[in-house]
Amino acid sequence: MKKSILLTITVLLTMACGSQKTTMNNDRNKSDYQEYRDRFQNAKELIGREQYSSAILNIDHMTALQLNNGDYTPQRYKAMILQVTGKKDEANIIYQSIINATDVSNSEKKKAQQLMLINNEAKAPLTTEIERLKDTTEFKNAIKVIEVPPMYPGCETLPQETWNNCMSRGVAKHIVRTIDVDIAQVTSNTGFIRSYINYEIDTTGHISNIKATGKNKFLNLEAHRVMAQLPQVTPGYTNGEKVVVSYTIPIRFTVD
Fold it and tell me: Which Gene3D superfamilies does the record cross-reference, listed alphabetically (predicted)?
C-alpha cells in the first residue's frame, strides 16, 4: 500500500622583505592565487547559469595552476557537471581520483563516494505525478488516511499529533547539517534557485526513489546527495500495516 504526503521545507543556505627575486616570486604566487580564486568564483557563477562547458574550462585552468593544497572541491564540481550532463564514466574517474587522494579531507572523500553511488544507480524515469496530485482531493485524502506517519528518530516520545511536524523539523535539520553550504554561491548572480525533491519512506523506514527536479541540474544533484543520507526512520502505518509514504520537499538555494 502506498500513500502520499506533501512535506514543505525551505532551506535558506547562506552562505606581506627579501631579495628582488623573492619579491617577484611572492608577487607571482599572489597573482596565481588570486587567479585561482577568481576562476573558481567564475566557475560557480557559470554553473548557476548552467553554462557548464565554460565552468569546466575555468576549473581546468585552476587545475593547471596546481594550487589546490588538498582542496578537491573544484574537481568535485567538475565531476558533478559531467554527471548531470550524462558523462558518467568521466565523472567516476574524477570521483575515484578524489577518493584515492592522500591529502583529501574525510568530508570531501565522503561527498565523492556519495556522488559516485548516485552516479552508478540505475535511473528510474522521472515522473511529474506528485505535481499533478498536489492540489487534488485524492492527494489530500491520502494524507488523512495515514494513521501513523513516519517518525524521525527522537519523535517517538512526543504526542502523535506532533509527529508530522517533528518529522519535518528532523528532515530540515538533516539538510542543514549535510548540505554543502558553499554550493549556494552558484546562485550569486541568478537569485535563488529551487530544487524539488520527491522521495519515499519505504516500509523499512529507509529513503528510496529519490527524484530531484528543478531548473539547475547541478543543484538538483546536490539536493539528491543530501537526501540520500537521510537516516532510517520509523515507517508509517495504516490499519496496522506498514505503508510507503511519499514526500515532496522544495529546497531553496540562495546567498544572503
Answer: 3.30.1150.10
Query: Could you give the residue range(s) of every CATH 1.25.40 domain in the chain?
Result: 20-119
| pLDDT band for position 24 (cuts 50, 70, 90) | very low
Cell (9 digits) for 37: 580564486
pTM: 0.80
The b/e string for 116-128 (b: 16+ C-beta within 10 A; e otherwise) is: bebbeeeeeeeee
Assigned CATH for 20-119: 1.25.40
For residue range 52-105, list pLDDT tens digits in order: 999 999 999 999 888 878 899 999 999 999 999 999 999 999 999 999 999 999
